[in-house]
Amino acid sequence: MKTQRPLSLLSILFSAFLLHFHPTPTAGYYFYDTSATTTDTATAGGDTNFIRTSCEITLYPDLCYTSLSGYANAVQQDPARLARIAISVSLSKAKHMAAYVSNLSRKADYGAPPRAAAALHDCFTVFGDAVDQIRGSLKQMRRLGGSGDSLRFQMSNVQTWMSAALTNEDTCTDGFEDVPDGPLKSDVLDGVAKVEEVTSNALALVNSYVAKVTTP
Ligand SMILES: *[C@@H]1O[C@H](CO)[C@@H](O)[C@H](O)[C@H]1NC(C)=O
């Protein structure tokens, strides 16, 4: 976070919040490996069909397409890049949610019912773990190299971390089971559900890439 320009980051967070998880592609550029953009010019216009087809294997194909089609130039027809960019999109969503929950949690310490305050606090903790796991996955995707067993090992790390992130996000939701219904609860649960959807999509694209590199 420290390396971001604070003003831009704020406005990104703000617009991401307004758009409620339908990000503008340009906002996402701040969050993913910018080296991907250096080869953009090769396919001006990009290949959105490749993204549409790849998204069909995910649980939320429409969200997958809308959240990734803006990166067509960076993806080209490369399933590893598509998976990496999907991971970076899920990272920015998870980070935003962690910040949002942190804010709510701080406020809840003054006056919210204790069960809600505890659920928010736990949610912030598990979301922090999810952010670390997604960040680790992104790092690994940026460093992918080799082939065969070596590549399979690197990808199995990514699969493990992305599944763990999904589990942590789900744990946040579980923590609200005993919290009485209300705007705060539905706000958090709706937000978490959106993050889970993009995380699930990213994992599906990772799995799909793994299937491609492990079948000869
Ligand atoms: C969290 O609170 C800070 C300070 O009040 C604010 O600038 C930021 O936008 C908030 N973040 C989210 C994601 O709500």
TrEMBL record:
InterPro entries assigned: Invertase/methylesterase_inhib, Pectinesterase_inhib_dom, PME_Inhibitor
Keyword Signal: yes
CDD domains in alphabetical order: PMEI-like_3
GO MF entries: pectinesterase inhibitor activity
Alphabetized UniProt keyword annotations: Signal
Location of the Pectinesterase inhibitor domain: 46-205
Annotated signal sequence range: 1-28
Pfam families linked: PMEI
Gene3D superfamilies: Invertase/pectin methylesterase inhibitor family protein
Name recorded for this polypeptide: Pectinesterase inhibitor domain-containing protein
Gene source species: Ilex paraguariensis
